[in-house]
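Re-run with default settings, no changes from the original entry. Doing this only to confirm the output is reproducible before filing.
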Amino acid sequence: MTHEPPSVEQHLAGIDAAVDRMAVWSRAAGPDAPVPTCPGWTVRDLLAHQGMVHRWATAVVRADPAGLDDAAVEAEGRAAQNPVAWLLDGAGPLVAALQAAPDDLAVMTFLKEAPPARQFWARRQCHETTVHALDALAARDQRPLTSEDVWIGTDLANDGVDELLVGFWQRRTKGPRSEVPYTATVFVSDGPAWRLDVTGGAPVTHRHHTHDGPTAARTLSGSAADLYLALWNRGGTVDDPTGLLDEWRERGAVTW
C-alpha cells in the first residue's frame, strides 16, 4: 500500500454509498432480474444475501449469538415483500454498531493479516457491499462492468485489492494453486504492487509500496478500479499477458 490504509470512517462512508446505490439499482432492475455477475442469482437472491451478511456482521460486532443463524435470516430476506426495504433495514444497524464500537473491540476476525476487529469489520463490509452493489448495476443494465462504473476512489480500490490478495487468498482454502510453483506480480498503474508466490498450498502475498517494473515473469496490471473489478470477478480491463485471471478465477472466487 502506498500510504496509511483507509480509516474506519472512510469504510463506513463506503458502506453507506454502496447501500444507496444497491437500493436504487435493485429497484430499477426488479427482484426477478438475473444478475450476470452472479450466475444463477436474481436480484432478490442478491438482496437476501447482502442483507443477511449485514445482519450477521452486526451480530458479530455486538457479540449477539442470537443473530448468527444465517440460513434463517437469508430465508427471511427472500420472503420479504419489499426486499430493498429489507436490505436497508439491515444496513443501518450495521453502520450504527460499527460507529458505536470501541477501537479495542474484541470479536472474531477471519482473514490473514487482519487489522483490529473494528477496522476489520468496517473494511470487510465496505468491500462486500461495494462488490454486490456493482452486481445490482450489472443486473439493471445487463452488461459487463467497466472501470467507469466504479465510484470508489483509488485508495478504497487499492484497499479492496489488498484485502483479497493478502486477507482472503493466503487462507488455507483460498487463492490460486499450481503444481509447478511460480511467482506473479499484481500492480496498479502508478501505484502499489503485490508479489504472489504460488505453489500447491496457500499462496504467499508480499506487499510493495510502489511498483518499479515487473518483478516476475507473470504479471497482472491495470488501474485500481480495473483490478478491483477483475480480481473480484466483476469485469474490468487489465493487462494479463499470461492468462492469470483465467487460472485464478475458480480458486480465487470468494463465496459465503
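The first strand starts at residue 182 and ends at 188. Helices lie at 8-29, 43-61, 70-79, 83-100, 117-141, 154-168, 224-231, 244-252.
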